[in-house]
Predict the structure.
Amino acid sequence: MKLVQRVYLREVFSGLGLTARHFFRNMGRHVAHALGRKDARGAVTVQYPEERRPYSPRLRSLHRLVRREDGSPRCVACMMCETVCPARCIYIVAAEHPNPEIEKVCQEFTIDLGKCVFCGYCVEACPEDAIRMDTGILEFSSYSREGMIYTKEMLLALEPAGLDGRPGSPIPIPPDRTP
Ligand code: SF4
Ligand code: SF4
């Protein structure tokens, strides 16, 4: 290498200049965008959370429990999802179903989303299509571990017949949860 290359200083300043040029150019575009020039875009192409990209239909999002036509959970408490879950974060308590043609129903169905790895095995394993991960809800963080525990009632409230007739309808968020 030549002496000027071995000293590296020229390359260091060349790199700094390139970084600075991109930094100020992007900052100028962000400022212009914030001042109303919607066509000006910086390095961040999606201004989340104000702008959102459509999710893929294959996305695995917050779980929900599906209901029967009579409103009861479709879950028959077979424990397949609890057994297959690699994170051991599903807890089910079985009970007799009032309909004699259905053997069991879940009395309690809890998912600790603080442990869940969103593998989707529970959905794949379910023989009744009773649990789905199609709500499209990804923002359910919490300031506490307890806040990540979702009960049967919360999971059922996401079912289309639950709140406003749409999948992904909002559920009651406890006060300690972030919006
Ligand atoms: S998505 Fe995976 S880790 Fe989460 S509850 Fe289902 S099986 Fe368990
Ligand atoms: S696999 Fe389906 S039916 Fe069986 S306990 Fe889980 S949600 Fe209920």
Q: What stands out?
A: The longest strand covers residues 104-112. The beta strands are 64-65, 90-96, 104-112, 131-132, 149-150. The radius of gyration is 25 Å. Residues 1-53 form one domain.
